[in-house]
């Protein structure tokens, strides 16, 4: 069993999008029983809030539900449970390292690292472009799954 945590700033746009896109990929490949997948925030601003309407709409357009998901914050002891902690951008990595201190097991990475493009996934909270974010998240999730299956 592999435990995967997706992380962004507020856990209402990008990281829940990645969580549910990845779960959908697993379900389509009948691999869901091999993984635990979750998402969380580095900040506390959105704790308890539902997924952003733009993310819900984008997921729904692609046949993916995120019903019942509310934002939660990454906790220091989450580091021990998750095998890989996938951040959406460099800012998230910095904030995550403030929470956990260090990354001795080298679990922390960025989602686009699995696409051959080590850039950041744009935050649609600011850009308003949920299409671009979805395309990047989907490519990253596909690359991450491919990476994990090769191991």
SSE blueprint and pairings:
Elements: E1 2-8, H1 14-28, E2 35-41, H2 53-61, H3 78-81, E3 84-87, H4 90-100, E4 108-110, H5 124-127, H6 130-150
Parallel strand pairs: 1-2, 1-3, 3-4
Q: Using the alpha-carbon principal axes, give the shape.
A: globular
pLDDT below 50 for ≥5 consecutive residues: which ranges?
Answer: none
CATH-level-4 superfamily name: Response regulator
The overall pLDDT average reads: 96
Number of structural domains = 1
What is the CATH C level class, in words? Answer: Alpha Beta
CATH architecture annotation name: 3-Layer(aba) Sandwich
What is the beta-strand fraction? 5-15%
Query: How many strands?
Result: 4
Number of H/I helices:
6
The CATH topology label is: Rossmann fold
- End-to-end Cα distance, whole Å, is 13 Å
Rg estimate, integer Å:
14 Å
How would you describe the overall organization of this protein?
With 151 residues, the protein is of the alpha/beta class. It has a single domain, classed as Response regulator (Rossmann fold). Helix content is 42%, strand content 14%. The chain is built from 6 helices and 4 strands. A 4-stranded parallel sheet has the order 2-1-3-4. Helix 1 links the parallel strand 1 and strand 2. Helix 1 crosses helix 6. The model has no long low-confidence stretch (mean pLDDT 96).
């Amino acid at each position: 069993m592999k435990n995967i945590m997706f992380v962004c700033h507020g856990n209402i746009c990008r990281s829940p999008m990645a969580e549910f896109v990845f779960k959908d990929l697993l379900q389509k490949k009948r691999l869901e029983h091999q993984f635990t997948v979750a998402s969380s925030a580095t900040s506390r601003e959105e704790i308890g809030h539902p997924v952003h309407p733009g993310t819900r709409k984008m997921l729904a357009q692609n046949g993916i539900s995120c019903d019942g998901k509310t934002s939660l914050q990454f906790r220091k002891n989450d580091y021990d449970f998750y095998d890989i902690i996938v951040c959406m951008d460099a800012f998230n990595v910095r904030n995550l390292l403030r929470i956990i201190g260090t990354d001795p097991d080298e679990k922390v990475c960025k989602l686009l690292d699995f696409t051959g493009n080590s850039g950041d996934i744009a935050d649609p909270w600011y850009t308003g472009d949920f299409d671009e974010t979805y395309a990047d998240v989907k490519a990253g999730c596909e690359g991450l799954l491919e990476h994990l299956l090769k191991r």
